[in-house]
Amino acid sequence: MDQKEQLQKALETLHHFIMDLCEKAGKEPAYGEDLWERVQKSNGCLRELAYFHDYGGIYGQYKVAGYSLTDVLVWQVDHFKAYMDRHEEMNRYRTERLFLESLDVLLKMEVDPAPFAEKMQGETGTDYLGKY
User: Fold this and answer.
1) CA distance linking residue 8 with residue 70, whole number of Å
2) Model confidence at 132, in pLDDT bands (50, 70, 90)?
3) Over 70: is that where the pLDDT of 54 sits?
4) Structural domain spans, the chain
5) 63 has which bridge partners?
6) Hey, how many other C-beta atoms are within 10 angstroms of the C-beta on 98?
7) CA distance 122 to 119
8) What is the pTM assigned to this prediction?
9) Over the range 58-83, which residues count as b (16 or more CB within 10 Å of their CB) and which as e?
10) Bridge-partner residues for 68, per DSSP?
């Protein structure tokens, strides 16, 4: 198998993986296809997805406007704290959903980071230099 075929096989594997994550997260297939189309166009997000596939964890090396996938994930968890206490909304146990939504936000930040950066700085309970 040559390099081009290996790359195509790897992309097919990641496509199936993201669709499986969407199913586990209760997302519609159309959401997964849209997300996949955008991920393919982002080398950074593609690496984050590949790392999550290979190791089951967050790589967190790719940054948009100074924010990594880890930063977005922490904000997502903080943002949904009110729902985490509800039995029917057990987001803390829905790793797939949190990962997909964080990846989606990072992709949207590539287009326009300002609204998300503003929300992350204003909605988090964490104190950091320049917050106030």
Assistant:
1) 28
2) very low
3) yes
4) 3-123
5) 68
6) 19
7) 5
8) 0.82
9) bbeebebeebbbbbbbbbbeebbeee
10) 63
Structure tokens belonging to residue 49: 């997805």
pLDDT tens digits, 25-40: 999 999 999 999 999 9
Give the other-Cβ count within 10 Å of 88's Cβ.
5
Q: Rounded CA gap, 115 and 105, in Å?
A: 11
DSSP string, 92-114: GG-HHHHHHHHHHHHHHHHH--H
Quote the tokens at residue 85. Answer: 């206490």
Per-residue pLDDT at 123: 66
Judge whether residue 95 has pLDDT over 80: yes
Give the chain's count of helices (H) and strands (E).
7, 2
Please give the backbone phi and psi of residue 21, each rounded to the nearest 5 degrees, phi first: -60, -40
